Amino acid sequence: MAASKSVIGQTVEAIREAVAPPARLLSDSERSVAAAEIYEAGQLTPTYAFMLFSACGIAALGLLQSSVAVIIGAMLISPLMGPIMAMGMALARLDTRAFRSAAATLAIGAALSVAASVLIVWISPLKDATPEILSRTRPTLLDLIVALLSGFVGAYLTVNRKGGAIAGVAIATALMPPLAVVGYGLATANWQIASGAMLLFLTNVVSILGAVYGVARRYGYRPQAREGRAWETWALLGVMAALCVPLAVSLRSIVAEARETARVRSVVTEAFAGTSPHITELVVETGRGGASDVQAVVVTRKYVPGAQDAVARHLKAGAHVEIEQIVTATGVPPTAGSVLANRVTPTSAPAGPEQKLRAMLSGVGRVEQVRRDGEALEASVVLNGSPGLAEYRAAEQAAQRFLPQTPVRIVPPLAPLPAVPFAYGTSALDADGRRTAETLAWALNRWGLKSAKVEGLATPGPRGPRAADLRVAQARGEAVASVLRERGIEVSVGASVPDVVEGDPARYLAARVTAAP
């Protein structure tokens, strides 16, 4: 019994020892030495400026090449942790002069880093936004937690003068790549990328500063002289709370996008049921109510006409869906040497461009003719199923990607032109209406027709057509005519408003295009 009580007593004592403030572990002289070392690491020196400029230049090159190894190298040589640590220690001791000095060092260092990144991006021939760049433009609460934990580790190692693992902390917090991305955004005039990366950098700075402040206070660092009430803790908490708002919104948006992407993936797979589909690329943009724009590349054993419409029916009204189909014999992706961005890919492509185009199109329809027109190839084809003009235009775009060195023109069969839709009460083309008008202009050009008539429509008022209704109809016709004229079609414009609406009123919210003799 006595032995049991002894074990319990030892356990309680061990718990008290673990939770007790560690301030007693350091003497006043040890605290002074540690603080002096932290302040020294936060000073502005030529070496600090050179290291930062070089580190951000390396980070920018790594981001443009999407090279993780190069980015990690930039993190390792970056001295940005120094001034942030010094700011946290100065705040814990209420050393205003040291805080201002460290803050100036950080600001100058950040400006030099961004300048180095802008210079590298301007000089570099690579300017595409790589996945490594995009991954640093949407910070969330998870990034704040990572930076906070890394700050705790860094502060603990520094206060106890155990800096051997500080490189790992630098990698975890990743202070340098966000600044390089800010420079990329400024150099390419992409303010969304620049602002997102700046928010990530500020999140890391504030989180590390707060962690250093907390650890320093825990280890007995206190203001040497205080005037007035304590404010620094509440100020830090207020700044972190303000940061949490956009980070929480961003996290919620990312979660919603992930869920919607999973749902869209399921819908696309269902639309290709029975064809062994393999989705190699899926990009989903979301808005209120769900997915607003879907772009997918699907490898399939059989071309599925109307797949885009089938997917669009499961999404919110007005959602834009674009699916490119790669038809293979096995239903699995082609080898790395194949062109994956094509709508269809023959399993064995003959040598000549004409034979390649014929083999490609034969997988999705009946090829009636392929002929040379100067340097271009012109193909008359009838696609399987009941495709619209938009699908013929998409087939041409896919064929052009398949034969990038040869201009390709697909001539669809002659067919009535669909009406260009408008929203109720407006004469402005929305995205769907403009795509339809552009497709009509494409079809007229492929048929060799250089003139057309556009008739704008509108619904009448309760008592019959009004002058305002006729103006709306005329404006709709002009909106479509402007798109056709941009593409070399001569257009005459008319307007029509019925006396009474018969049938579906939606058919009067449009403009009709007919080829002129």
Structural account:
- By secondary structure, the chain is of the alpha/beta class.
- The chain folds into 3 domains: 20-228, Up-down Bundle (Glycerol uptake facilitator protein); 334-413, GMP Synthetase, Chain A, domain 3, CATH 3.30.300; 416-517, OmpA-like domain (60s Ribosomal Protein L30, Chain: A), CATH 3.30.1330.60.
- The chain has 17 helices and 10 strands.
- It has helices at 2-19, 28-41, 46-65, 68-77, 81-93, 96-123, 131-134, 141-159, 166-173, 176-187, 191-218, 232-271, 307-312, 353-361, 389-402, 431-446, 467-486, and strands spanning 278-287, 290-300, 320-327, 365-373, 376-383, 408-411, 420-421, 451-457, 490-496, 510-515.
- The strands form 3 sheets. Strands 7-10-8-9 form a 4-stranded mixed beta sheet. A 3-stranded mixed beta sheet has the order 1-2-3.
- Helix 8 packs antiparallel against helix 9 and helix 11 packs across helix 12 (232-271).
- The longest helix is centred in the middle third of the chain and has 40 residues, at 232-271.
- Residues 330-350 have low confidence and may be disordered.
